[in-house]
Design goal:
Layout (H helix, E strand, L loop, with lengths): L2 H8 L10 E5 L5 E5 L3 E2 L5 H13 L4 E3 L7 H11 L7 E6 L5 H15 L4 E6 L6 H19 E7 L3 H10 L6 E5 L15 H6 L3 E5 L10 H7 L1 H10 L3 H10 L12 H8 L8 H9 L31
Parallel strand pairs: 3-4, 4-5, 5-6, 6-7, 7-8, 8-9
Antiparallel strand pairs: 1-2
Helix pairs in contact: 2-3, 3-4, 4-5, 5-6, 8-9, 9-10
The structure holds NADP nicotinamide-adenine-dinucleotide phosphate (NAP) and 2-acetamido-2-deoxy-beta-D-glucopyranose (3 copies).
Length: 320
């Protein structure tokens, strides 16, 4: 008679019921629920990351995106601990630097767990493709082995073009769950598909995840266009929503998870309220055909093109 009770105690918890999610492929082959909304933390020092996580989690967020390279996993870990939310009820995405060999990869992966004060992450991404095919394969296999020991529920990549993904798939034993890429209004009519081939990713069962969906790092005025620009403001007025909410809704309505960064409570609250309205097909089409703000990075940062086996776009270096 105690068996059902025992079963209840063992029942694994998960993200809260009703938290908007999309299934991704876990390392074990079982689907994992990936949150459609999370908190970004790029460029935040530890203290800001800690307080942003604490505030976001008090508002209901259950996903944070960080990276070894952000040097703030310690602050994120402290914020998560301070939130007192049970570990099974939230989702951590972090990233290992691209281009490391197998032993350096494993060391960085374990250091991430220690800094984040956890025994596993939900999603571990390779942050950049690295410089050559052999090292990309070596690093993926090291990540895979580490994850299969119970340290990541799902694994994936970031900034990988089609050829990078094909290389990984040629050696992989586990699914590539996610490819995280820059994606925002202004680049819906994609001019750089070779750098973020969403159609290809989706054809392979790889979830396309967006970053910089508010164009935060874009040059002025692009960094404000998706917050207070005329197009998103006009559409927002029809729904009693802000421009930022329209910009984020445009991505999530396509099934693309977003991880907007904010350290302002009012903005965090706004960014979490994306699921009580829907853009019309006409509004979606207008947003998708916008041609600015353009993708950031490709014109200023030659490394953004990595070594995709395509002609690189003409590089126009920004004058400092
Ligand atoms: N894989 C990669 O290589 C990669 C690259 C870039 C980013 N990412 C990830 O994606 C996350 C998001 O991208 P991002 O940080 O580049 O920029 P973002 O989220 O597009 O924009 C962040 C900026 O928008 C402002 N903001 C946020 N919500 C707002 C609102 N509701 N109203 C007005 N302003 C608002 C924030 O300022 P306030 O603090 O004032 O709100 C901040 O300055 C990153 O933090 C990181 O986790 C990954
Ligand atoms: C792996 O990379 C690390 C850090 O760059 C280096 O110290 C180490 O010698 C490398 N190991 C091998 C087997 O190449
Ligand atoms: C956009 O960039 C400009 C120039 O760097 C800056 O002054 C402004 O505060 C930024 N706007 C936002 C919303 O971050
Ligand atoms: C508009 O949105 C604000 C902020 O969410 C809310 O307080 C207000 O009640 C809404 N107004 C209407 C008419 O729905």
């Amino acid at each position: 008679m105690f068996l059902p009770f025992f079963g209840l105690l063992l029942a694994t918890s998960d993200l809260p019921t009703g938290y908007p999610t999309v299934p991704i492929r876990g390392v074990s082959g079982k689907p994992v629920r990936m949150p459609m909304i999370g908190l970004g933390t790029w460029l935040y020092p530890d203290a800001v990351a800690q307080s942003a996580v604490t505030t976001a989690f008090s508002l209901g967020y259950r996903h944070v995106d960080t990276a070894f390279g952000y040097k703030n996993q310690g602050g994120v870990g402290q914020g998560l601990q301070a939130s007192r939310v049970p570990r099974e009820e939230y989702f951590i995405t972090t990233k290992v630097p691209g281009g490391l060999n197998a032993s350096a990869t494993k060391a960085a992966l374990d250091e991430s767990l220690a800094l984040l004060r956890t025994t596993y992450v939900d999603l571990m991404l390779i942050h950049y493709p690295g410089s050559d095919s052999a090292s990309r394969k070596e690093q993926w296999l090291a990540l895979e082995q580490w994850a299969l020991s119970g340290k990541a529920r799902a694994i994936g990549v970031s900034h990988y073009c089609r050829t990078h993904i094909e290389e990984v798939m040629s050696v992989s034993h586990t699914p590539i769950a996610v490819n995280q890429n820059q994606y925002h209004v202004g680049m819906g009519r994609d001019t750089q598909p070779r750098l973020h081939d969403r159609a290809f990713d989706e054809s392979q069962g790889i979830l396309f995840e967006a970053y910089s969906t508010l164009c935060g790092p874009c040059d002025y005025p692009g960094n404000e266009t998706l917050l207070t620009g005329p197009l998103v403001t006009r559409i927002g007025r029809a729904h009693n929503k802000t421009g930022a909410q329209v910009s984020l809704r445009w991505a999530v309505q396509q099934g693309i998870p977003v991880i907007p960064k904010s350290s302002t409570a009012a903005h965090l609250r706004e960014n979490f309220e994306l699921f009580d309205f829907a853009l019309t097909a006409e509004e979606m089409a207008v947003l998708s055909s916008a041609t600015s703000p353009a993708e950031t990075g490709t014109t200023q940062n030659p490394d953004d093109a990595q070594d995709c086996s395509f002609e690189r776009p003409a590089i126009v270096r920004a004058s400092k």
